[in-house]
Amino acid sequence: xxxxxxxxxxxxxxxxxxxxxxxxxxxxxxxxxxxxxxxxxxxxxxxxxxxxxxxxxxxxxxxxxxxxxxxxxxxxxxxxxxxxxxxxxxxxxxxxxxxxxxxxxxxxxxxxxxxxxxxxxxxxxxxxxxxxxxxxxxxxxxxxxxxxxxxxxxxxxxxxxxxxxxxxxxxxxxxxxxxxxxxxxxxxxxxxxxxxxxxxxxxxxxxxxxxxxxxxxxxxxxxxxxxxxxxxxxxxxxxxxxxxxxxxxxxxxxxxxxxxxxxxxxxxxxxxxxxxxxxxxxxxxxxxxxxxxxxxxxxxxxxxxxxxxxxxxxxxxxxxxxxxxxxxxxxxx
Amino acid sequence: xxxxxxxxxxxxxxxxxxxxxxxxxxxxxxxxxxxxxxxxxxxxxxxxxxxxxxxxxxxxxxxxxxxxxxxxxxxxxxxxxxxxxxxxxxxxxxxxxxxxxxxxxxxxxxxxxxxxxxxxxxxxxxxxxxxxxxxxxxxxxxxx
Lengths: 333, 144
Description:
The complex is a heterodimer.
Chain A: E1 5-11, H1 17-23, H2 28-35, E2 36-40, H3 49-54, E3 60-66, E4 69-71, H4 72-84, E5 85-91, H5 93-97, H6 99-102, H7 109-119, E6 134-137, E7 140-143, E8 147-152, E9 162-164, H8 171-183, H9 250-253, H10 271-280, H11 292-303, H12 309-313
Parallel strand pairs in A: 1-2, 1-3, 3-5, 5-9
Antiparallel strand pairs in A: 4-8, 6-7
Chain B: E1 9-14, H1 18-27, E2 36-41, H2 49-57, E3 62-67, H3 78-95, E4 103-107, H4 113-130, H5 135-140
Parallel strand pairs in B: 1-2, 1-3, 3-4
Helix pairs in contact in B: 1-4
């Protein structure tokens, strides 16, 4: 067997879903393994940082890096794997745009520590012990990575060759990415988003669209949508218009609105603002015979069921939004 | 130091009512605070939330959107779109710790120069009291 190219997969601030998604390519994984030899993959095999450090720069042909950058350790691993990899791929929504960990940018590191270690009703911490970066014990000093105030994506931390969106990326798209890399030849321009479409999700959604006019936005538990019509037309908050295609509209097909995990559609700077704009524009209002205040009230009544605009519109892209993080002090109420 | 703070307000004014009202205020030689930088757009409905957030991100202390009264839009209902977006973007900005006073909406007809001038002065005074927003520093972590 000829010598295989080196492959690494690493998780920073991640949930493990991206690794499972890679297994979703099933027996194709065996083909992948004939070309690539995993040298570092904490989820599936033992390995230490020193093993990676021992490699020469650029020794790894391909690294799938998933997870957001939350602490010093994540930054160190991002830099290390950047140096050792010829192709560094931001794999999945966290590495691409911050994803769910990015939502913590609505709060501060200090507030997180307080709620996790001190204030939660189920927390039993009589001595108010909180993690410290350095702790001195009899045997010497112990270190923990310091927790950052702002979650960043991999792209905001190191130079990245490609990004694969999705939470997690769909297996058929992972397969496309792997085929592309295995075939060699001409790769897309550096910095491209690969393993996804370029248009908005609505392009691949089979539901029927009409001119949109709604009087009320429904929360998930308030409505059972019909099977044929656009979910937004039925008053649901579906992120399709602002979200990149590529997943084949799995959620809308199953009667659930898109939550935006493939990130902004091509050309959209701020996914949340784009969606907000689309949604706010379709509210039906009676203008005739109503004064400015009465018209404002109709709009507010229609839109006020949207209790958490930031969490709805930026569920995956907050760390890459225009505002990027909240200003302190902010309390999550 | 804080006493010398002068807020920067970015104004998105529609061509048909708001911008003409601003002209009118000038012709009437009314005093309007010089803190407002007006950008003329064809309709207030053209002001995407991205523009509002971008202005704040790049250092503005506040944004004033001004257009025709509801029912009087040059394009029939552009300003109704504005109203919905304004309402949502202000709620959204609140979650990021941006005070409601920093994003404001004014309906002004072309003849309401005086009302507009007064609105600009009130908003400037409110932002002067609030202090600077400094979003670039919020992002870089230099301001907390």
